Every structure is written in structure tokens, then in C-alpha cells.
Amino acid sequence: MLTYTIRRLLLAIPTLLFISLVIFLLVDLAPGSPASQIPLTVPPDVRMKILESMGANDPVHVRYLLWLKQFFVVEPLVWIDGVFGTTHAEGMQRILSWQSRSPVFDIIAERMPQTLTVVGSSYVLGVLIALPIGIYSAYRQYSWFDQLGTFISMVGFSVPTFFTGLVLILVFAVNLQWFPSIYDTSLRVTDWASFVAQVKQMIMPVMVLALYNAAQISRYMRSSMLENLGQDYVRTARAKGLGEQVVVLKHVLRNSMIPVVTVIALGIPTIFGGAIITEQVFRVNGLGALLINAIHGSDLPMVQTLTFIFAVLIVIFNLVADILYGILDPRIRYD
Amino acid sequence: MFDSAPRPPLVQVRDLKMYFPIYSGLFRRHSGDVKAVDGISFDILQGETLGLVGESGCGKSTVGRALLRLYEPTAGSVVIGGTDIASLDSENLRKARPQMQMVFQDPQASLNPRMSLADIIGEPLDEHTDWDAQKKLARIYELMDAVGLNRKFANRYPHEFSGGQRQRIGIARALALKPKFIVCDEPIAALDVSIQAQVVNLLEDLQDELGLTYLFISHDLSMVRHIADRVAVMYLGRIAELSPRDALYARPLHPYAEALLSAVPEPDPSLARRKERIILKGDVPSPANPPKGCNFCTRCPRVMEICRQVKPELAEVEPGRLVACHLYSTSPDAGSTGATEAKERNQQGVSP
Amino acid sequence: MKLKSALLGAVATLAFAPAAFAERGTDGNVKVLYSQAVSIMNAYLSNGTKDVEVGSLVLEPLAGFDNEGTVFPRLADGLPSVENGGIAEDYTSITWKLKAGLLWSDGSPVTADDVVFTAEYCMHPEGGCAQAARYEGVSSVEKIDDLTVKVSFSTPKYNPFTAFVGATSPILQKAQFANCLGAAAPTCTEANFKPIGTGPFMVTDFKVNDTVELAANPNYRDPAKPAFATLSVKGGGDAASAARAVMETGEFDYACNTQINPELQAQMKPGCKGHSVSGFGTLVERIEMNMTDPSADLAEGERSTAKHPHPILSDMRVRKALSMAIDRALLVEIGYGEAGRPTCNLVPAPIIYASDNTDCLTQDIEGAKALLEEAGWTVGADGIREKDGKKLKMLYQTSVNPVRQDFQAVIKGWWNEIGVDVELKSIDAGVYFGGDPGSPDTFQKFYADVEMYANNFDGTDPEPYVAQYTCEKAPKPESQWQGENINRFCDPAYDALVAELLQTRETEKRAELIKKMNDMLTKDTYTIVPLVDRGRLSAHSNTLGGVVLNVWDSELWNASDWYRMK
Amino acid sequence: MTDVAMEKPRSQWADVWAQFKTHKGALLGLVVFGLLIAFVFIGPLIWTKDPTYINPNAAEMIKGRNKPPSLVSPLGTDQLGRDMLARMMKGGQVSIAVGLVAMSISIFLGTLIGVMAGYFKRLDGPLMRMTDLFLALPLLPLLLVMVLLFRDPLSAAFGPEGGTFLLIVTAIGVTSWMQAARVVRGEVLALKEREFVLAARSIGTPSRRMILRHILPNVVSPIMVAATLGIASAIITESALSFLGLGFPPDFPTWGRLLFDGAEYIQQYPQRVIWPGVAISLTVLSVNYIGDGLRDALDPRIRGR
Fold first, then answer.
1. Which of A78, C25, D90, D270 could make a disulfide contact with A89, Cβ separation 3.0–4.6 Å?
2. Å from C413 to nearest chain D CA?
3. Does D182 contact chain A (CB < 8 Å)?
4. Rounded distance, CA A114 to CA A188, Å?
5. Each residue of A127-153: pLDDT tens digit?
6. d(C-alpha D56, C-alpha D59), whole Å
7. Does A29 touch chain D (CB under 8 A)?
């Protein structure tokens, strides 16, 4: 398993390089321009100057190679410098955002905490809600619980987050005034009061996202459970006189988890991708907002770097999913 | 058996090898092989049942599957009815499939849960005939009659049947194309004892009726004794002994066969008292790394020095009995010849 | 005249200053919300108004504009004028004197060197300075003494209040930015995020495109200001929720530019937590008529170029009819409410430059129909007018924006009514305004018959704005489609007026010329069809005092005067 | 051989339908979905108001804006006085069509790629890396590029509306198949090891029919889930696309866009979001129940119960 993992990771390098090239060309080909952010009052010659100073007018291969160098050489050196206090990266050009003219990695590091807290906890919560609901709905298929669960999860899935977010704000922030409608990213949790404040401001965005995630995962869980409940080994297990709990929770669940684990593991990178709309609605300003902003502003270095990190996570979690698969399903061997 | 007129062999297996490669390290270098089947040769005569016995993991099922080319054999030839199955291209292989079929171990797992009985039995017909629906249906019903399934069941699905019935479906499917040769891969292992006899009897009846040739793979020695004409005993990818059934059961020659058969319950109590169980010590070596010399040398109660150095060849030591053991090497230079793998293409497995 | 208005402005500013002023930092925290988040604090590298405005809390220019658009001194010790000798007789130089005793927030003194450095910083050819236009025509900036700077122009500059005036050209501290000249400018992240300034606040924490935390500047020149100890700016989200956060939930004290639909404005009115303020500048939502042929049948490179005049819109009567069919008051009503007013002018303000042209304000469907008949367009079988077998069909494009889409739909209705077939198209703003020469969907390429967007001019002088409509400034393939004369209007008489304007010194005469040019573009030719004069609508909480909306300079121009009402 | 014995086995589809009928939810879903289809496609023949009509008379228009439901306009009017019922019908045509077609494309691609990757060991690596690539690609620039490259040729070939429709469904389809592919691949990997696949191989069933006969029917359940979820996301994605100016012309109503537009007016005129919201949810719910029923009906183990 270990050599398999290492080998997959090594194989990932050419894959990722290829992905980075495709992303770069794609973003470059997209018909936006960083100039769209500059007010119309700025005359054309000044615009050209600004674009030149960003390096946006260089040929595409020059920019791509520069980005590769910055991503794989300069940024790690900067990181080493930061950790060990050395000065290897002195004088080297880091990846700079065109929008804010600041190092892309600093911005990402700044955004990471709120994204992980809000989107991450909503994902965990979503999974925690989805699994029991999915299991029980399948076990008691067509019971009122199942019907209700189906109904809620379908509504949760079919109603977009901008809508649920808005409704929550109107109810809980405007009318009841229980929670703030705007997420305060500068809030530091130092004592009980600030902890309460943090929880309060997280409740609404987390609820919105958890509902959405739970809706999806519970559907997969339910269907997978149903598939397995119909298998013969379940009948055999029951015939053996095993308790219902053991049959369902040990035999069926273990087998049903196989496809669901894939779905869950593959969903994890989306945490880092942020939740574009929800972040916008509650002004969480996490990585999703960062990406969408950068895309709208055609901030190529930022889009490229973020998407590439995202690609790395996807590849890694694909691997994680495959390994989990191997653990859960002994028929699949990797060595 | 040997008194009857000589029948031509239907299946000729020569030096069949089935290695599963082991890749290791970061770059997946080919670092070795699991030698599941390591150079075996035997013939199966027309209308005969060859039993293939051995402990689990000795490569019995692999032989069965390699014979039908469900696995791609590493080396060797498998001639069935005159064509070398092991070297056919995929289209010709497909055309050759009808003459050889398989009955699987797990009747539950070998039937697609989403196909009805008629569809399952009819699948071979769909693949290999251009009959119209009516004709196919007629054949399906005929097959169902033949294996003793009620025609009313045609629309039912595998989960609605008992284990024995499912195995009948599997047999009907195997018979659909009127094959000459059927590999029965532990067909009764997953069945209740009461059902086992029914299925075995069915197989025997069908053999008589249709003149089928069986390779009957099993670890159940009593059942093999019941059905087989000749029996091959396999150990760690090689055949230890290939003898007519009665001779083998009466007096096994190879020490492994002896040990294996000593575990068979003896129906005759007088004989049973005389019999001593031979308990083998140690574990079966890994097929990825079999011992040098005789495969069995690590556990053989009568091991000699030569056994650790030289691989014994399967040789006819008594009429009709082939044994791969140094105890029976008549030739004084057996050691040197046996050591070389030069005599790969031995014809010793061929019975006259 | 300039001095007088400046003084009046100063008096006006003072009048707003509350009497019950305690001392610096006693009113705690004030929270400001921007729907676009702040990316950088340095206006010279900024991409947008929000950066300039928040940056103005820290960095200040020598002089600024007040809420009436008049110049008043900030760091300068009085305004230079021809009368006091600050401006040379021939308008080729202006001499600024700094207030004595000014300190940067780090305690070091503000000197003429900083001013000279600032000019050097923005005029550096590799710096990509976003505000380079403010320094156009500046030939040199010299230090006379520690507190005096002389700015010389290469040609007479009749409006010398460009460099160092307004939030878009603040003074940088030389010590902090010395190593950030030219290509190095964007690498000075720390300086760009936390500039040392002279303004009422200084940055304590900066999160890109998210929040800015500021604290009162201990060295601010007025020891009693600002009243707030800290100020936080949050960005992101949409205008409606920003307004809601101030007016309904009361989470924030001030929300900038909360352009929300009138229904919502009315709905939020009764909100007891805050109210909205509006002010009008020069931003005009308009329809531009394409004077060239955008037909896809033309070869790429000839499409929408002066080579092929527009087959339909070249006829002034059609353009006029299209304008007449529009009810601007209704547009304001459905789109902007109190943040808009109907206009027929390209230059709606300042008052002295605004033409009295109002004849477009009444909708005249019948008149429009008659005009089209007169132009030879007769109603066909399907209700669409046609002439010589050609249908009267318009492709009408704009950027994606709910109000613009409503406008498109309504105007399409009116144009259908007069027999014009309309196809609508909306384009992502990043593409539309991006100017990417590879994209067919930019507003400069104008591959449509009519298009809608809003534009304005910086500061109070419309000269560069009206000068955009000369023949040579039309976007064309040779110039990579860059150019400001979007509708490719071309009239030698207009070009002559532009030349004359550049030579004219007297304000009244300039105003006259500008009005004339405005009329040429609008009511005389209907090349540009102005729709709505868009104001700024901001919201502030009922407990925030001292707010004066300013559309000529940074919206946060007088944050030092803000205080908490008790 | 008697006649009874030679009786043809019943058609499987009759069994499927018989089982489907016993599934109350599925039947209800079918009825609701049928009604929705009738509403959007037959409705406009009865309710003939123009969904984009705006009263050119300003005074009338102002009076006709944001009306609550009445006899004149049973679902009320929007902020420009357009009839909501007509807009809902017109919008539904597009939304349902986009939802179904885009979902089909995505499911087709996902299943195809998932089965290929799971079944053919050699294709597994390349196909899964391609899946990674698609998962990693930023959606918006991808769509922008697609629009840039294909809008004009497609419009020329299929007319502006047909071209846009094709562009949108393809865009949504090719950017949403990845999850289905991953799930299907996983199932196929496990299925491939089952003995009945080996049995079919010993019969000589070629790969193509092996997949169609033995693999696909056994992965139908996760595909059904992906399909129902896919319809909802296709409808919503379409609205996001239109909203970004990448979709249909701006005055062209779709349910997603109506919902988006209405969100702004949620406080004053909640019905503006309720209609499209309910319509989308109903579509998704009914399709989900149909999918549920179909999955059960297609599974003989459940059917036998």
C-alpha cells in the first residue's frame, strides 16, 4: 500500500504539470482582461502601461514558465525562509496577484482559516447528518421518516444556496436578530464571549452549506444501502440469527460505505474550493470568494495558483478515496 | 477403464504455466511471479471425467480457468478438440468457446442477479447462434427439462431459487451450446450436503446422455472418488500424481497423495481401522517462492537429499500411473535429467 | 473666483462639524461596509474606486474636493491661485506650500521631498501607475524649500488642480516607498497594504479583498479628531445586503454605494436603524449608437470600423426616434429611485458645465413613429418596420446587471412599440469592460447596434471627457480596439471645438464650449442617448454623525469628522 | 410439449411497469412530472399572454408592476409588469429541457467514462487523470472559453436559440459528469470481480455486450441518484450561466433566472420566489421519485418482494 501510494504520488507529478498547463491556457484564452477592473475614467494609454507593469502582455509561454518557476522554486524557498529564518528567496519575484499586487500565497494563507472553519465544519456536519439519515431511510424504506428525509434533501438540493442563505438572513438576522448577517473575519476567539460570537456568526452559513451537502450525501448513502440490503448475504446473516443491529450496522453498512466513501473523500477538496455563493451571501470572504473575484478580475496568477492547488488536492483525495476503497473492499488490491 | 477400447484424448495439456507477475517497488519492476500453475501436462480422454484434487491454493481453479482461457496462460498449450486454445486470437477463441464450458463454484455469484432464468440460460444462445426467439425458447425449455428445472421458473430471477436450483441453472447455461468439454470448478462446494449428491448425479446423468467430458475440480476427495475416472493430485502448482481412480484410492504412490487420501473417510470400517492418518507438518510454501527441487520436499515425510536439489518429473511408474517423485525414479540418471528443464515436453502424461 | 468657492467650501465643511466634539478616540469603533472589497491601500496601484476611497482614510493629497466639487486645501497651506501668485500667470506652473508641522503617522515630518517623490513614483515609466492621468502634462516637480513644491507643466494647464489634488493622487511617504519605484512598485506589499499616511486613521490590519482595520492616527493634525478610536472596513457581498446590514440589522454604521432597487429603498425606509443619503456626480447611464456597421457579414477587421457607416443608424432620424421612444422618468423609477434622475446630458454636472437640454425628458411614441415614417421605414406585415426590404432590427447589448437587464427589457418594449425589432444581449462585465482584443464582446469593439453602460469623469473638469469624442480616438483594429470614442462619432467641427477648448482659459468660455460639445453629441445628433444621471446612494446608521456624501472625491473624505451620536 | 410449456416468458418491461405501478411515490412523481410538462408545453396554448410583453404606456406599466395574483394574471406580475404565469410556462420549457438534456449528457459521459475506466484496466489511469483534470478546471473560465469559441458557429448552424440551447446543455454536461464517473467506476471495479462476469466471459460474451448486459444494469442505482441530483444542478447552473451573460438572452425567462431575479424582491413580494422555487423543487422531487421507482422496478430482487 505504501509503495502504491508513493508510486501514485510520483505519477501525479506529470499529471499535475499537464493540468497546470491546461488551466493556464484556459484562463489565458478566456475573454476577460485584468483591465476590466480599471475605471473607465483611466485613459487607454495608462491602461496599457498598467497591463505592461503586471506582465500581462508577455507571451503566454514566458508567463507560464515564470509561473512554474515561481510556484515550484520561489514559493517553497520563501516558505523555508519563513520557517528557518534563512534568506534563500531574497530578491526573487514571488507570484503576485494582479488585483492586489501582493503575494498570492499570503492571501491564500490569510483566507484559509475562515474557509476551513465555515466550509469544513459544514462539510463535517453535512456528513454527520447525512449518514444516519441515509442509513435509516434505506432501512425503513418508504416509511414516513424516509419520505420526509427524501423530501427535505431534495428541497435542500434543488433550492440554490443564494436563496436559502437569503431566507435565513431575513428570518434570523433581520426579523429575529439572533445571528449577524455578516461574517466577521477579524474576530479572534480569546474568551467565552468571542467564542459565542464565533459560533453565532458561523451558524447560518454552516447550516446553509450543511443542508446542501447532507442532501447529496444522504441520497448516495440511501441508495447504496438499499442496494446492499437486497443482497443475499444479508439474508444469510439474518438467517444465521445475527441481531438486526449487527446485520445492518456491520455487514450492510460496511459494504454500503464503499461508494459513499468515494463521494465523501472526493468532496473534501471542494472544502478548499470554498463555497462561492454562500461566502458571498454572508461575506465570509474565504477561498471561494477569492477565486470568483480573481476570475471576474481576470487575475491570472491568482486563478492559476488557486486552481492548481485545488487540482493537487483533488489528485490527493482521489488517491485517498482509492486507498479507502482498498481498505473497505478487500477484493481490490493495489500491490 | 483400461480394458475398454482406447479413446482419443479430447483435451491435451502440455506444460501449462500460469504465472501471476509480482510488481514491486516504486517503478513497478517485475520482481517475480506467483507460480500458480508451474508446468503441468495431462490428457483428458473423450467422455472421461478427470478429477483434479488438492488443497486450496494449490492452483486447481487456476488450471480450470487457464484451460478455458479465462486467464491468459504464461506458457504451454491447451489443445481441445484439435485446436490450441492457448494461442487463438480473440475472434477464433470466441468461436471456439461453445465446445468448452464451465460450471462455477458459487451458484449465487455466478448468476447475474438482474437477469431472468430464461435470459441467463439463453445468453450463450444469443452469443453464438442466430436462432429466432421461438427456437431459442424451445432450447431453453429443453435445457431446463434436462437439468430438472420447472418450466414455470423461466421468468424468475436467481434470488428466487435455492442453491441447488441455482447450480442447475449454471449447468443448464453451460450445456446450452452442446459443449464437448466442461470444467466443473468445485460445483458442489457451496451446496448443502443433501443437494451435493443431486447435482453430482445430475452431472453424471448428463455425461452419459450427452457424452460429455469433464474436468472435475474439487477438494472433496470422496465426491471425486464417486465421479472421476482418473484423478490428478496437485500440489503447489504441479501435478504430484495422476492415476486411475481405484488405483489411486487403493494405493497412492506419491507421499503427498498418500497423506491427502489418508484424510478421506473410509466407508468400509474394516479398512478404516487399518488406515492411519498421515498428518503433514509445516505449511504450504508460497507459490511465489517454491522450494528448489521437489515442491513437496519441505513437508515430505520421506524426503531424500535429491528431493531438495532436483525437480522430479512426472513419469509413468506403473501402467497408467504417473508420479512425480524420486522414490520411483527407475533410471539411475534420473537426477541429472530431471534436474534440467530440458525435457519439458515430456509425453509421459499421455496414456495409450 | 476659485478662492472664493474654496473658502465657501471650507466654511461649509466647518458648518457640518458638530459642536459636541469631545476628543480623539472617544467614540470607539465605527464599521464601514463596501460591496466591493479593498485590494490595496495605495491609490496609485489601485484598480478601483473602493481602494482609493478607503486609502484616503490614510493617505491624503495636498488638496481635495468638497461635497460641492470645489477644491479645498488638505495638506496644503491655502490654495494656490493666480491672485496669490501660487499659479503662474501663463498657467505653466503651480506652487504648493505645505502646512507647517505636519507629521506622518510614524512621527516623522512631512516635507517637500515626499511630494517630489510621489510625482517621481507615479510618473515612473515602468511603475504602471493607475493615476498617471493626474500627472499628465507635468514636466517637473521641484522642491523650493522644505515646505514648498513647484509643479511645472509642459504646456499651459488651465486646470492645474490635477496632480496632488483629490483622493486619486495622495502624497506618499518617501522613506517608506523609496525602494518601490518603477517595476518594484508591486513588490512592496507591506507599504502598499499599510502605508504611512497623514490622514485621520492608520492601518493596523489588512486582509486583501476582505477587511481593513484602522486606528486613529496619533499624529493627526487636528488633536481632537478623529472621534473614533478604530474604524473597520469590510468588503464583499451585494448592495442589497449591505444596505440591510446598516438599515435593518444595524450591524454596520456606514455602507458605501448601496445601489439597490427602488422597491427595496422604499421597504428599508421605515427601518429605524439607519437611513440613506444620496448625491449626484457625473455618472451617466447612456445608450451609445454605433455609427459604424457591426454586421457579422463584414470581414473581421472591417466590422464596426469607420470604413462602413451603419446602414440604419447613420440616419439621424432613426437615432432620434429611438431616443424619443424612451421614458427616462420611468427608467429612474424602476431602476434607481432616489439615486437617479433623468437626464439628456452627457455632462450633467458641475452646474456650470451642464447644458439646459431637457427636451428628451418627455416620451413621444407617436412622434417617434412619425419620424421613422418620415425616414422611410414603414410598418411591415409582422409589425416590424422595413425599408427597401431591410428590417429595422437592433442588437442591444450591455453588461450583466439586474437594473441594466430591466432597462433592456423595458426599452425593448418601447422600441417594439414603434416598430423596431430588438435582440438583447448581456455580457459578463469582466468581458464587456475587459478590452481584450481577442473577445468579440467588449464594449470597445461594439459588435452591436446599440449598447448601454455608464461613464463619468474624474474630478470636476470635463475637458478630457468631452475630448474623447474626436475622430482619431475611435477604437479600431490598428489600435487593438483601444479608444474612448466608443460610437465612432466623427465630426471635424467637433474636433475643432476640442482644440479650441484646450486653448481656452476663462472658465465661462470653457463652460460654453463644453455645453456646445455636449449638445452636439446628444440633442443635435443623438449619437449618445443619455438616460439616467446616476447618483451615489449610501446608507449610514442613525447613530453615526457628521456624514456628508461627496461625489467629487472620496466618499470617506470627511471620516475625521464622523462621530457617534449619543 | 404442451402449449403452456412453450409459453413465451413475459416481457421484462411488463414486469417493470407492474412493479413501478405499485410504487406510490413513483406514480405520483410521474403524474406531477406529466402535469409540469403539460403546464409548460401545453399551457402556453391556453394562456397566450406574451411572457416578455411590457406595457409601453409608462403609467399603465407602473400600475401593473409587482401585482399580487389576480384573475388577470393568476400568478401576479414582475417588476416590469410582465405576466408571471406566462413567464413560468416559457421559463419551464427551457428549464425542464435544459435539465433533462444536460443531465442526460452528463450521465451518459459519466457512465461511459466510469465504465470504461473500471472495466478496461489500461484505460483506468488515463481516464481517471482526465477526470481529475475536469474536476480541477475552473468552471467559469472554461464556460467563457466555450462560449467564445462555439457560440457563433453554433448559432449559425442551429439558429440563435437552438445554438444557445446546445451550447448550454453541452457546457453543463461536459462540466458535471465527473462525480458520476467516479462512482460508476468504483462500482464497476467491484462488479468486475464477480463470478457472473467470469461466467459470461467463458460463454464468449464480448466486452461491449458484457458491459451492456452485465455491468450497466448493476450500476443503475448510483446512476439514478446522480441523474436526479443532476437535473437539479443543471437547472440551477443554467440560471447561473444566464445570469453571467453566458446563456439565453437576458429577457428570456427560465426558472432559475426567475428565482434569481425574485430573490431581490423576496421581502416585498415573496410569491416572486415561491413560484419558480416550487416549480424547480417539484421537478426535482418528481424526477427523484420516478428514479426511485424505476430503480426498484429494475431490480428483480426488489420486484420479487
1. A78
2. 6
3. yes
4. 11
5. 998 888 888 888 887 788 888 887 887
6. 9
7. yes
User: Do you know the residue count of chain A?
Assistant: 335
> Which one is predicted more confidently, D27 or D140?
D27
In Å, what is the CA distance from B299 to each residue of B248, C251, D25? 20, 84, 65
The interface pTM score, or ipTM, of the predicted complex is: 0.76
B261 C-beta neighbours (distance < 10 Å), count: 23
CA C139/CA C149 separation, integer angstroms: 13
Å from D13 to nearest chain C CA? Answer: 47
Query: What are the C-alpha distances in Å from D258 to residues A163, D43, D90?
Result: 12, 18, 11
* Pairwise CA distance, residues B28 & C150, whole Å: 75
Q: What is the count of residue pairs from C and D with beta carbons less than 8 Å apart? A: 82
DSSP string, D147-170: HHHHHHHHHHHHHHHHHHHHHHHH
Q: Give the relative orientation of helices D24-37 and D84-119 as an angle to the nearest 10 degrees.
A: 130
**Nearest-CA distance from D285 to chain A in Å?**
6
Residues with Cβ within 8 Å of A142's Cβ and at least 6 positions away in sequence, in order, are D25
The cell 502646512 sits on which residue? C99
Q: What 8-state DSSP symbol labels residue A142?
A: T
- Residues belonging to chain A with any Cβ–Cβ distance to chain B shorter than 8 Å: 3, 6-7, 10, 232, 335
D80 to C406: CB separation less than 8 angstroms, yes or no:
yes
Q: How far is CA A222 from the centre of its chain?
A: 23
Q: Say yes or no for a CB contact (<8 Å) between D244 and C440.
A: no
Contact at 8 Å (CB) between D302 and A188?
Answer: no
Q: Is the Cβ–Cβ distance between D200 and D274 less than 8 Å? A: no
- CA dist B9 and B230 (Å) reads 13
What b/e sequence results for B59-68 when a residue is b if at least 16 CB atoms lie within 10 Å of its CB, and e otherwise?
Answer: bbbbbbbbbb
d(CA C32, nearest CA chain A) in Å: 12
Which amino acid is located at B119 in the chain?
Answer: D
Cβ atoms of residues D259 and D273 within 8 Å: yes
Amino acid at A283: R
When CB atoms are compared, the residue of C240, C413, C440 closest to D54 is C413
State the cell numbers at B178.
Answer: 452442446
Reported as a pLDDT band with limits 50, 70 and 90, residue C7 is very low
- Is D18 in the A-facing interface, judged by CB distances under 8 Å? no
Q: In chain B, what percentage of residues exceed pLDDT 70?
A: 87
Is residue A119 within 8 A of residue A286, CB to CB? The reply is yes
Nearest CB to D204 within list B94, B113, B138: B94
Provide the CA C483 distance to its chain's centre, in angstroms.
Answer: 18
Question: Going by C-beta distance under 8 Å and a sequence separation of 6 or more, which residues neighbour residue C531?
Answer: C284, C285, C286, C287, C326, C328, C331, C342, C343, C407, C452
pLDDT in tens, A61-105: 888 998 888 888 888 888 888 888 888 777 778 888 888 888 888
Which range among B29-38, C216-225, C547-556 shows the weakest confidence by mean pLDDT? B29-38
Helices (H), chain B: 60-67, 90-96, 117-128, 133-147, 163-175, 193-210, 221-227, 245-250, 255-261, 269-274, 334-339
Q: Of C401, C386, C398, give the one whose Cα is nearest residue C423.
A: C398
Give CA–CA dist D226/D184, Å, rounded. 10
C-alpha cell of D269?
413580494
Residue C115 to residue C102: CA distance in whole angstroms? 13
